[in-house]
């Protein structure tokens, strides 16, 4: 058989196939699923090719501790069999495993040629119906409608891929205002190329003749690779490199198309493996185990699963630098005056550092200082525009560069309206604070991140609880995380758009970190209801879309995370240690200024990291730590914040200087 022949080869010959044994097969499947612990749901009532009624079922595996009030991620699998045969049994073990990891895992029946006399077009319509039904029934199922994964193998992988990338083809009469597009895809040797790519056919010419008849439409209309656009969900593909049914090059072509469109896509090839290599029960199950491990990691990294905790996980080392006064530099202190909430900005010379902070708890006139020696010494307070004294909230500094190469420093001041000051000579002169738009928010902006979408493009985020987004806002129980974009180097900003909102989990004060390869953004978030750990979200499309939030480990739980990479690729993140109420008694350094050392992979996989470090011993509650973090050319970390460093006195601004090599020695 040719190595260029995909899954369709054995499927094209159309023949009249009787329905003998159909009901027995359906009953056998249901009996097996119930015995394995599945609940049975009918997601669609439709017809076969002769007009006879057909009830299509989903077999649902719930986690042991599942409750209808949960908002779990969900996955639905579609079996393989060339759109001709096959049963939901194929993914039974996958479902059992993923349910044990906390997902609501389902395997779906859909119409096929041998049982219902239908063509591939109906298979796709059924796949879309299944995804839509899960989203419609999310509250009853205890599922998060924004965390639904479609998976499948071979023809079932094709069905799953079509739900993710092809618009339309929905069953008539369904509520198309409810999306049938999943939030991620997991595809196992999928048929994703059904028409020519650059004159390269997916089949030998003689095999193409009956393809349109078998599909029920023009094959290109059902060819996922030809429909990829920038809205496709994150995807992982598993494919045998020796597959003679669906050639490996077709998976490569799909993955390339996904990445070219700006989507997240990962292809894992298996040397020497043919079609169906991943199935449970194939050989010694080593390929099943390999693929399920990789799928697990993919789902963790995109917020569909919580990371696994094992006794083999490295122990987090705790280090206390709170009394190491040789590392401390006082930036500013005024007896009887509250000084708090600083941010810093290191210029390109590696030694000029700027710092702003309010005289008061957030609200208060902005103080401005400058260091010319990397934070070892600081200037007196510098003159500022008159209306900086009217600042209502925490000021934040950010370096930005315009599309024409003009360098600027911008300073935000929040609440309503959000205002901006600009310097175009590295902080020597500043404009007054000016409103950016008819909106506001809290801690505007926690970060300003350069984007790869074009020169001068930036992303920023902030949050609000209803009080400051509009002029006449009122406090609500809902926290909303907003994003805003600039395309002119930070001078103007788009109307804020909601990224996430909840009345149960109060996510706020975002801090952004980009992956070492530059392809992914992570945002760490304070949880202000103090019910859960801090959270993290990811974006693979430069901030356009974001994964659902998931909890960080307790080791990274706290407020106002600010992080930078050091020369060896490790991350240093500074924040305030503040835990959920139920975890406080077990947490060292609660209410203090702390730092975390780990890697990007630790963030992605939810690991504790390497070091948990007390930077400053705060003596009053948790009133500390809105930190600046800068890394000097010699790899010295200069991190700056405020705190009640002397019991009974007002807080003041202090820096701590350290190198990770010094922590390694400790």
From TrEMBL:
InterPro entries: AB_hydrolase_fold, BD-FAE-like_dom, GDXG_lipolytic_enzyme, Sialidase, Sialidase_sf. Its EC number is 3.1.1.3. It is an enzyme of class 3 (hydrolase). Residues 69-256 form the BD-FAE-like domain. Residues 1-24 form the signal peptide. Gene3D superfamilies: 2.120.10.10, alpha/beta hydrolase. Keywords: Hydrolase, Signal. Residues 423-576 form the Sialidase domain. The keyword Signal applies. One of its GO terms (molecular function) is triacylglycerol lipase activity. Belongs to the 'GDXG' lipolytic enzyme family. This is Lipase 2. The gene is lip2_1.
